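ERR on first pass: missing label on line 2. Operator R.T. fixed the label and resubmitted. Corrected input:
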Amino acid sequence: MTKPLLQIALDSTDLATAVTVANNVESFVDVIEIGTILAFAEGMSAVNTLRKRHPEHIIVCDMKTTDGGAILAKMAFEAGADWITVSAAAHIATIEACKKVADDFNGEIQIELYGNWTLNDAQSWVDLGIKQAIYHRSRDAELAGVSWTPEDISRMRVLSEMGIEVSITGGIVPEDIHLFEGIKAKTFIAGRALANDTGKATAEALRTEINKYW
Amino acid sequence: MTKPLLQIALDSTDLATAVTVANNVESFVDVIEIGTILAFAEGMSAVNTLRKRHPEHIIVCDMKTTDGGAILAKMAFEAGADWITVSAAAHIATIEACKKVADDFNGEIQIELYGNWTLNDAQSWVDLGIKQAIYHRSRDAELAGVSWTPEDISRMRVLSEMGIEVSITGGIVPEDIHLFEGIKAKTFIAGRALANDTGKATAEALRTEINKYW
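pass 2 clean. output:
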């Protein structure tokens, strides 16, 4: 597989801020994500705008699509998204509808792993031809100051073995990257860590670590 | 409990259409919902606009909030929503964060029942003081031409007994209303059935049925 990519999550509540952040980071990230907060704040114009301003980047629209999949997917792909997110809690018919639209646009679906999803669920996504999922560090772990747990790592491995590439997010720092060796990591996603004043240095440190293990 | 209300779900992909539909139906609905599709199409301006134009109606913002709950909730309540939706798949910490914001605004949270939610999950929502959930007719049932199933009705009853009022949606027609007798139904939600040319007559027929059973 290709090396894991770096992704900026834009979650401002206004487009101007998002445009500024994207402008500042575009030279050192591969993927620009219109986060759910930004998408609900500004609507599809956020996707249109960032697609136009960053024609060479991968654009993600993080809708966590739960229902009305065909319409939401079409809207986001037409606005310029390359990838869209779909909730693990969506009915399989919704996930399938999103995949069909993605295929029409040569786009991709990423499953957002929330709720009580099972490995049977994951197999049904794989059976639909879905190749990506997004793994979030447990909030309880994060709040308790615990880093990524063995259970997180083992679940990511199982998903990798099933053929799913995982985008990994949740306070990602360069010192964590080694934990994910051997996992099919599609992207590492960060927000403030890449958007702040030390963002470029952080990106370089992340890539140094990535190059050690992939 | 009060009688079930009538709710219009606005799911157009443009604000002008939504404004027109809301204008046409406001006299015979109690609740105006900015559907997820409209919210992602137009952003919070859709909530602002409909709140301003319909100051006396209950306004729902259907975000199916899955993460970043505090920020999404604040955004929607500030834009004028009375109720917001939160996904059953969200981490309990997210649901709790949304509830706290709702309390600050004298607003309410509705849990969108998607994915593998359990009665233990439902109890944890009740423990947080959440009093509403939205029950969707099974899509498989709908596609197979099957009406509401005994399992649907019995799950709604259990939720009622736990203290949750259910908004009910999925091809609702007046002939179905009797099925829900004895359930704490908060609203019946419809889209095209209320928005089309016979919407007013449909609303009257729904209310006639509602008055028989509540």
